[in-house]
Amino acid sequence: DRDDGYRLWLKYDLIKDASQRATYARSAQFIALSGNTPVLKTAAEELQAGLQGLLGKAVPIVTSAGNKTGGIILTTRADLPTRNDEGYQITGKQNITVSGRTDAGVLYGAFALLRQLQTGQPISGLSLISNPKIQLRMLNHWDNTDGSIERGYAGSSLWNWYELPERIDPRYRDYARANASIGINGTVVNNVNASSRFLTAEYLEKVAALANVFRPYGIKIYLSVYFPAPKTIGGLKTADPLDPEVNKWWADKATEIYKLIPDFGGFLVKANSEGQPGPQDYNRTHADGANMLAKALAPHKGIVIWRAFVYKADGKADRFKAAYEEFQPLDGQFDKNVIVQVKNGPIDFQPREPFSPIFGVMPKTPLGMEFQLTQEYLGFATHLVYEAPIFKECLDSDTYVTGKNSTVAKVIDGSLHAYPLTAIAGVANTGSDRNWTGHPLAQANWYAFGRLAWDHSLSSEALANEWVKMTLTTEPASVKTITDMLLKSRDIYVNYNTPMGLSRPWTGAHFAPEPWQNRSSRPDWTAIYYHRADSLGLGFDRTAKGSNALAQYRPEVQQQWNNPETCPLPYLLWFHHVPWTKKLSTGRTLWDELCTRFYTGADSVGWLQKQWAQVKKDVNPETFDNVAGRLATQQKEAIWWRDAWVLYLQEFSRQPIPAPFKKPE
Ligand code: GCU
Q1: Does residue 504 line the site of ligand 1, with CB under 6 A?
Q2: Catalytic residue among 143, 318, 376, 514
Q3: What does the DSSP 8-state code read for residue 341?
């Protein structure tokens, strides 16, 4: 089946075990649906299609169960004891009842019921309630008008702007199905480095056509906006957020958008960041800029998502500190329909970063999370990196802002500061490749992101296990092998790529090792700015003797990291400049420890290959070969990374490569 990858985790292949199938079938003889709103119809049709595949029999949709038993009832109930409008309840014995307070709740419940079958769980006798912990669960597409995707490695954009609005690619619907099945309810369709063309009448019509496809799946559409659009497409002389004409232009634009898209979600904004214009060009603040847009959207119930990814082109400053410095003083100044979206990592989506110190210090401003699914710094689409452990590590970090157990998750789900709005976004890893994500196993990152956005308490392991069963195989030994590969993949990558808190050994493309690359248009875009290698040692001193970025964290967090003797090794070089010969807790010197990690990391890719070879008989042959080929590339490139780092750093350390390891070839 060459389409194996296309069908994602929505395969619904016939359940092999006939008795298991028969058991399920006894509880799924019909689907009763009262109501015919588009989202409810989607729920019934998805359930029907899924059951058809899994059970190999047609399950009729009826308008009422009457006094029949052995079926599934889909229903909305205003008095449901779910915690919020998108939650669902699944109960029942004679009939299985899937209910939500809203249509969307029923849709999520229908997919949850299918998941039970896909993962071999019981469906009768269930009594479960599930609520999304975060309100806005979104994908951010960095897609451009010309079909390219910034940092996209799975082909070109899914959106065929030249064909829209007339031709609707059936793939748009499949995209919506996949997202709805994991609880994603919003999508920003264009790049944060935004073209103002998206706000022209010509493009808004195209965007509206996409919105029409997504709506029956409970997904709202959002746009990234170019802050100076009033100048570039509005003909005004300024984009100053305090200028009345500029305000009017945005208000009129919002009205125009909502005429076409009544449930439009709102705007995502990158401003005064990496050369993008913004309110600071007019000596105004981020809050002035955000509030102007918020006022334009408020009458329509739209929201503004304002990004906190800011830093100056200053080789002396510590980029790590910038978001906190610019945004924390603005706490309390943002309008009610503004969310500030913070990247995972004070620097930029590195393979391992400490959590951003801004989480916890803006109790009056809803802070949303921005994770990156596309593997900009994780080996593009050839290296295997399962990202759930990255997301979990961040979400589970304790900020200590209101004492122990003030996790980042509790900041962004609103429970710590009672935020009225909560949001989480993943920068999408999808593209026009037939299998959506290029690397077949990278689908797991899209999947895990959506599931964690719904419930951040789920474990990386549980999600890997679920995804493998739904997508690749249900054979227990292979499920275990692949789950294990996924769970170890991130640490393997970190070991050969950026061990112990190294970061950003790249310029431009963010793929090849370039720790030596110090020619750049900006002093903070050189490699040495980040790793600080010299004859004495390695690492960025962020203690009081250095940039003092550590002071942005609570004392309990500082304590974990500010002493080089006790700082956990994965974070050591984030916070300390460590002598090459310093003895670490492993008993090895810094230099020997680095070499150990580079070498074992690269070797571990061989382990991944061996593991994968074992699952051959249980995995679709196309998918098997695809992954095997990519792992072979990864093996080659891991060695390349290892040798590049070791040889480069050796120029500073002047130490031999420790005995157990071979010399680079
Ligand atoms: C990174 C990335 C850019 C992107 C930017 C952002 O720097 O390399 O391509 O535009 O992040 O998130 O705004």
Answers
A1: no
A2: 376
A3: E
Distance of CA 521 from the midpoint of ligand 1 (Å): 16
Q: How would you classify residue 538: left for phi > 0, otherwise alpha for psi between -120 and 50, otherwise beta?
A: beta
Least Cα distance to 306 among 356, 340, 333, 275 occurs for 340
Instruction: Report the SS3 class of residue 525.
Output: helix
CB–CB of 49/81 below 8 Å? no
Query: SS3 letters for 191-238?
Result: CCCCCHHHHCHHHHHHHHHHHHHHHHHCCEEEEEECCCHHHHCCCCCC
What residues pair up with 453 in beta bridges, in sequence order? none
Q: What does the pLDDT look like over 461-486, one tens digit per residue? A: 999 999 999 999 999 999 999 999 99
Domains assigned to the chain: 18-130 (3.30.379.10), 136-471 (3.20.20.80), 494-653 (3.90.1330.10)
CA angle centred on 191, ends 211 and 346, rounded to 5°: 125
pLDDT band at 594 (very low <50, low <70, confident <90, very high): very high
d(CA 626, CA 343): 31
Q: How confident is the model at residue 664 (pLDDT cuts 50, 70, 90)?
A: low
Residue with tokens 């895990």: 448
Mean pLDDT for 633-660 is: 96
Q: What is the DSSP letter of 523?
A: G
- C-alpha to C-alpha distance for 313 and 304, rounded to whole angstroms: 26
Query: What dihedral angle (degrees, nearest 10) is formed by the CA atoms of 447, 451, 457, 462?
Result: -50
Work out which ligand 1 atom sits closest to the CA atom of 142. Answer: 10
ipTM of the prediction: 0.99
Cα separation of the two ends of the chain: 41
Q: What is the pTM of this model?
A: 0.98
Tokens linked to 329: 């003083």
